[in-house]
Amino acid sequence: AQSVTQLGSHVSVSEGALVLLRCNYSSSVPPYLFWYVQYPNQGLQLLLKYTSAATLVKGINGFEAEFKKSETSFHLTKPSAHMSDAAEYFCAVTSPIRGSARQLTFGSGTQLTVLP
Amino acid sequence: NAGVTQTPKFQVLKTGQSMTLQCAQDMNHEYMSWYRQDPGMGLRLIHYSVGAGITDQGEVPNGYNVSRSTTEDFPLRLLSAAPSQTSVYFCASRADIQAPNEKLFFGSGTQLSVL
Fold first, then answer.
1. Which site among B37, B48, B105, B110 would you substitute to test the A interface, given the most A Cβ atoms closer than 10 Å to its Cβ?
2. Alpha carbon distance B99, A87 (integer Å)
3. How far is Cα A15 from Cα A8, in angstroms, rounded to an integer?
4. In degrees to the nearest 10, what's the CA dihedral of B2, B3, B4, B8?
């Protein structure tokens, strides 16, 4: 079974500062990993995903994440925060085995606040 | 293309009442699922379906029923609502039931309060 842990339920950064949201995974095999974003009163949208190709993954809105097997991590970063980045961010994991990925397991979420 | 549509957006129930949360998608997706979102717990899978007539339980299925009579629709039924079912419910779908790398398309959610 796979699981993810998001460190920090709330993160605040100033506009223009680096954004770093942490995600660590637990899995018996190298998993597939995702970051989803949820804006207020909306459903989740895919930000980026790691599916065993390049370890540095670039997503939408200037976000990127790096898969580090040695650290079992998949942290989300953005060099310069914008006010529009304020949202809740979820890390998620699933098995890479075709036919077995019946569910995506989500972390508890990190609420990002961007201060002016 | 509407994507994934959920109704209603808000609902208040009394303990013991029943209701159905509706979910429809117009993308011809085989895989559909229901999640509940609770503060500090992320999203947890309730039930999912890999095609018409095929459903299975997720992580937290107790108190919920589902059926899948068509590819488009995947309603979630609460037979006897309990305060513990107060939550935000999301329906999500994806095209390929076998592909773990495909993204989920989410509806905008139903906020349910059980008094």
1. B37
2. 28
3. 19
4. -20
In whole angstroms, give the CA distance from residue A57 to residue A32.
Answer: 12
A-chain CB neighbours of B58 within 8 Å are 103
What's residue B100's pLDDT?
72
Looking at the DSSP assignment, which residues form a beta bridge with residue A112? A11, A87
Parts of chain A with a pLDDT under 50? none
Report which of A107, A23, A108 is spatially closest to residue A57, judged by C-alpha positions. A23
Half-sphere exposure of A67 (CA within 13 A, CB side): 21
Residues A32, A25: Cα–Cα separation, whole Å? 10
Cis ω for the linkage preceding B8 (within 30 of 0): yes
**pLDDT tens by residue, B23-50:** 999 999 999 999 999 988 889 999 999 8
Residue in B45, B58, B107 closest to A43 by CB: B107
In angstroms, the CA A76 to CA A25 distance is: 13
